[in-house]
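Exam review. A common question shows you a sequence with its structure tokens and asks you to describe the fold in words. Practice with the pair below. Do the first one on your own.
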Amino acid sequence: MKSVLHYTSETCYHGAMKQRNPFIIHGYEGPKNFCDRIVETEKLNAAIENGRDVTLLAERRIGKTGLIKHYFERLRQEGRRATIYVDIFATSSLFEFTRQFAAAVIGSMNSRLDKAILAATRFFKSFKPEISFDAVTGTPSFSIGLQPRHVETTMKECFDYLGGRGDCVVAIDEFQQIGTYAESGTEALLRSYVQFLPNTRFVFAGSRHHMMTEMFSSAKRPFYNSTQTIQLDRINRDIYYAFAAQRMPKACGLTRKTFDRIYSMFDGVTWYVQAVMNRLYERGTASDRDVSTVVDELLQEKNWEYAALLKTLPPGSVRLLKAIAQEGKARMVTSGKFIATHSLHGASSVQIALKRLLEDELLYETEDGYVVYDRLFGFWLTRLP
């Protein structure tokens, strides 16, 4: 059955009364300017309500974090379950994971900092929250004073606390990161706690498809067959246009043709579409010429960053990146035809470069071939001599 969505029209205009830009590119600001994901939200809710943990897979910048925050906002409004969100992308060890996880658990105890710290002090014995104050604003915040020798004790305390509270949903974003830790038993340790929490459901979200699939689909791994998998894909083009057209002022002149151009340029990847729409809303016009100007602006702003990145890569990797960027999507990059077309070196050299670029997440493998992961970087590469 085809979904029919209704959006509330908004007015935006330049001047003293200009409204907030509805095309959000960072964070989550509520359901009003959140596009679609109705089916995915219902799938997520059905799994949680029926006692199933979830593996949420999505290419980076598609909107998996936004979906989690959107679902958590729904739970908050309904008052049915407590929610805990923790992003472990920046962690590189079990120690760092535990510190992040403990901070998220403590943060969920109470909306008031002082009460949360008091509750943590009474419950957690392996560490003490450390209070600090912003030098400019004076705003208080806390961090976790955790010693490496107390990691497993703190982990146990966190899960003991979760086991003793009411219904709760815990989302761990970029979960594949635990597969990079030096501590080989991290997955087994987490699984040993997760499986004995009847009132707590988990959402394990990740952007590295291969690593996540291996974690949850291999019979050799601790989390084997323990979750329901939800794959997050692009927002439907028709639904996205309806959303965008309702939020752009009519005077901007956003046509379906122009929107389709933006959507196709960035393969429907949410963040890039939002980034362009955000700038068009600011400009107040949305012609094809405006789109080209906005993309040029974004590339110019990234010029130094991309140039610096390129200098860190060996020549073979740079050549392969440029070749794939020129193709848009490239299959059989080690074939003689591809190598000859783009003046690359031998197949073995291409294979080495490909492996490194995939590991560094500069390339991404789709069903249709390899693409430059950062779509703006891909456009930037095509403009190089």
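Now try the second one, then compare your answer with the model answer below.
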Amino acid sequence: MRIKIWFSEWPLFLVLALLLVGGLLNQWSAGGSYYLKRQALFMGVGLMVFAGLSYLDYRRYLTTHWVLGLYLGLVGVLVLMALGGKRWLVLGPVSFQPSEMAKPVLIILLAYLFSQQERPYLSWPLFLGANLLILLPVVLIAVTDLDQAFLVLLVAENVIFLAGLSRRLWVGLLVAGAIVSFLVGPPLWNHLKPYQKARLLAFLQPGKTQKRWSYQTRQALIAVGSGGLWGQGFRRGLSSRLHYLPAKHTDLAFAVWAEEWGFVGSSIVVVLYGLLVFYGLRAAYLARDLQGRFMAFGCSVALFWQVFINLGGVLRILPTASLPLPFLSYGGSSVVVNMIMLGIIASVLRRRFSFL
């Protein structure tokens, strides 16, 4: 039975393997052997976590005590990071970004809460309680990383919408959202840091900010456009080799890939991401319990929004954001957390054959 289960999901593992190989090639080209070796180490750790979680039966272990412990542990670490004004938690030679862990922890928390409800729609108390639980870590993350805080909030709200909202709640949210936007918008703009305002202005007024603020996005577009149909070849991209492209191994990793592999190679990567999200949503659809459905859906939309926001910034469809592209960008925290979410999806997929 186990062999049958794993064999039936070989497309998911093939898509993941192709993205991992692509990420290693991209880091080798963008950063050389140093980044290649470190990324391979991160991926190795991530694969072990992925394999362990895929075998884990979440229905047995994600009990009230475990879920509450994960949430309180996350909040405690985020409080320390906010007080210290730091994004990275350094433990000897190892550094980790705790804000990345907020995505799977909040997804697990919301999935557990919503799986206990008996109504087809969320009640007002449960809706407000869920948003308060989300708001605390989001505010703590926003102290040091506004982009990551926005992503965490977006993913959590997607899970809430899946849980179901009544018509009255929808109307109330629209009215409240309009009022809050009107009241909070101007003060929030004044409290943004200069580089954050620069990103928005570079997106809204690219012609007026050519020399200073839009340099990163313009170089990314040049790199993507110079790739043409088939690309300039592996490790032959001029923007990358001549160091015109900033943050080429992190935020703009897709620009390096597009320049070297062209439209065809870029399309393949986008299709692979689409398949990864598709298999996650498929796991949510096939899940035999609500907890598994919410977790698989939450992990899928988390992967989707990371890809969409990163590619949108590179292609100037959206303002640029400091969010890594899953597996193609350098970063141990990103790789491990994405593997955690894929491990949750794989666990839900495996449990669809179980009637217990």
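Model answer, second protein: The first helix runs from residue 2 to 8. The beta strands are 89-91, 94-96. Full marks require stating both points clearly.
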